[in-house]
Amino acid sequence: MNPTILIVDDEQHVLNSINRTLRHDYNVILSLDGKSALQVLREQEVSAILADQRMPGLTGSEYFHEARKIQPDTTRVLITGYSDIEAVIQAVNDGQIYYYIEKPWEPEDLKLVMIRAVERYQLIKKNKELLYELEVANQLLSNENIILKKDVEQKYNFSNIIGESKAMKDVYDLMRKVIPTDTTVYISGETGTGKELSARAIHFNGPRKDKIFAAQNCAALPDTLLESALFGHKKGSFTDATSDKKGLFEVADGGTVFLDELSDTSPALQQRLLRVIQEGEFQSVGSNKTIKVDVRILSATNKDLLYLVQQGKFREDLYYRINVFPIRVPPLRERMDDIPLLANYFLNKYMIQAGKEIKGFSEDAIKYLLSNKFPGNVRELENMIQRAVILSGNEQTLSLSHLQTEWEAGKSIISTIPDFQSDIQLSSLPKLVEEFEKKYISQSLESNQGNISKTAIELGLSRAGLYKKLKRYNLD
Ligand SMILES: Nc1ncnc2c1ncn2[C@@H]1O[C@H](COP(=O)(O)OP(=O)(O)OP(=O)(O)O)[C@@H](O)[C@H]1O
Ligand SMILES: [Mg+2]
Asked: Around Cβ 95, how many Cβ atoms within 10 Å?
């Protein structure tokens, strides 16, 4: 069908003459006044509007002002007389019109202007369609990524979990029991103990292993985005929802959803989660269509969920739904006998990555590893060894100096702060850290002449974060 053009002029003979010029190439709609012309815009798609500046009631540019609110992309062309030049300039400057044509005109000139006007509209439309397609393609890609990742993740089996201690064997026993079932599993444990690793092992060794494992870190997103990540959304349901999007519960239908850091969810989201877990159904954001899915739910936190329930920060009913089969991954200090195994495993992994050949650890290095408390658990041990491998030169073994570097670095930072070393006495680590933080902040404040924004940037804090600390340490 030909593109639609709307002509607005209070003189019938002008309308007729324009109609004769354009009707072969366009679907022309004629309108004698601004009001009825606005109605046309409400009812159908119009590529371009041609309106006379001089009309009783609304002038052409006043009409465009309203028209723009209804169909913003339509190309607006003004018909002007010699004395309308100021109105034209104003209208162009305000972005009301794209072209204008002066009376009297040659039919060929009018045709040319309208060709350009319609082309402009079609370009904008095409552009928007492309953007939309891009958006959809991106969405598909991100869903596909989850699927592709699945293949990579096939290798998550028990052999990736290192540890032969009694404490870990108990964990494996529990996992083996629950793996063949559809039971909801709640994995607790301190940071870096291997909760995510265990969740993957449960999925990739179980009956759903050929379906998707979708992990969502609930602490990583603000509430609305988390909701849409999990449940999906309809186009237009909030500002950034420029297209429909499937949530992880739908993407992982038949597979597993892993809710990581589950404790960091709002009461509203907890309510929605309760419903999916209880009934296996949900509605995506902005839609009232109920979607039914079959997903296995695994979750993890490094917080004490029961304590949060007692504090009223986590729904009790959800807690019991989640906590059907709890598995606690023990901290590394409760399985010190796994440290040599883990250390060798990571040494091997990072040595190969770095293309180096290292035979093992020196005696003082092993002693150091075994006396370390590892508050960051396996992750901390892994990072320590990765760094040591990178730092090592031609040595046959990793020694204490390779492992200790971070601490050394810490010491040298402290020594750059005047008087710091002489000020402090040996005391507990938290106190030391506070002392250090306070000095460091006040020094940065001073060097930035008390400018909060600059100081916050320098320290890598938000302004609010910096204010909190200033208050805490009584710094002005
Ligand atoms: N038993 C283990 N064997 C081998 N690698 C492990 C083991 N436990 C943890 N890791 C490794 O340590 C790192 C942290 O593990 P993971 O992400 O599973 O910890 P987490 O308990 O989920 O931590 P967080 O609470 O901080 O999210 C990962 O690189 C993981 O591969
Ligand atoms: Mg984790």
From this structure: 10
* Cβ pair 405, 391 in contact under 8 A: yes
Tell me: cis bond preceding 104? Omega within 30 of 0 counts.
Answer: yes
Pocket test for ligand 1, best of 377, 378, 383 (most atoms within 8 A of CB): 378
Percent of the chain with pLDDT over 70: 90
Averaged pLDDT for residues 469-476: 84
Pocket test for ligand 1, best of 152, 171, 193 (most atoms within 8 A of CB): 193
- How many residues in total does the chain contain? 476
Nearest to 9 by CA among 46, 53, 41, 44: 53
Any ligand 1 atom below 6 A from CB of 194 = yes
Top-level class of domain 333-408: mainly alpha
- Please indicate whether residue 330, judged by its CB atom, sits closer than 6 Å to ligand 1: no
Matching fold, domains 154-330 and 426-472: no
Phi, psi at 424, each rounded to 5°: -90, 150
- Give, for ligand 1, the residue of 157, 188, 197, 328 to mutate: max count of ligand atoms closer than 8 Å to Cβ: 197
The rounded radius of gyration (Å) of the Cα atoms in the chain is 34
Q: Which residues does 197 contact at the CB level (< 8 Å), separation at least 6?
A: 156, 160, 161
Whether the predicted pLDDT of 153 surpasses 70: no
Give which of 315, 273, 313 is closest to 297, Cα–Cα.
273
Q: What is the CATH number of domain 154-330?
A: 3.40.50.300
* Cβ–ligand 1 contact at 161 (below 6 Å): yes
Residue 302, ligand 1, Cβ within 6 A? yes
Rounded to the nearest angstrom, the distance between the alpha carbon of 194 and the centre of ligand 2 is: 7
Dump strand ranges (E) for 315-374: 325-328, 360-361
Q: Is residue 197 lining ligand 1, measured as CB closer than 6 Å?
A: yes
The superfamily (CATH) of domain 4-125 is: Response regulator (3.40.50.2300)
Cα–Cα distance for residue pair 154/206, rounded to 1 Å:
11
Which contiguous run of DSSP H or E holds residue 27? Answer: strand 27-31
Each residue of 393-426: b (16+ CB within 10 Å) or e?
Answer: eeeeebbbebbbeeeeeeeeebeeeeebeeeeee
CATH of domain 426-472: 1.10.10.60
Give the start-to-end residue ranges of the domains of the chain.
4-125, 154-330, 333-408, 426-472
One-letter amino acid of 143? N
What residues are paired with 240 via a beta bridge? none
Question: Out of 123-132, 143-152, 385-394, which region has the weakest mean confidence (pLDDT)?
Answer: 143-152
**Ligand number nearest to the C-alpha of 339:** 1
DSSP structural state of residue 285 = B
The highest-confidence range among 299-308, 395-404, 451-460, by mean pLDDT, is 299-308
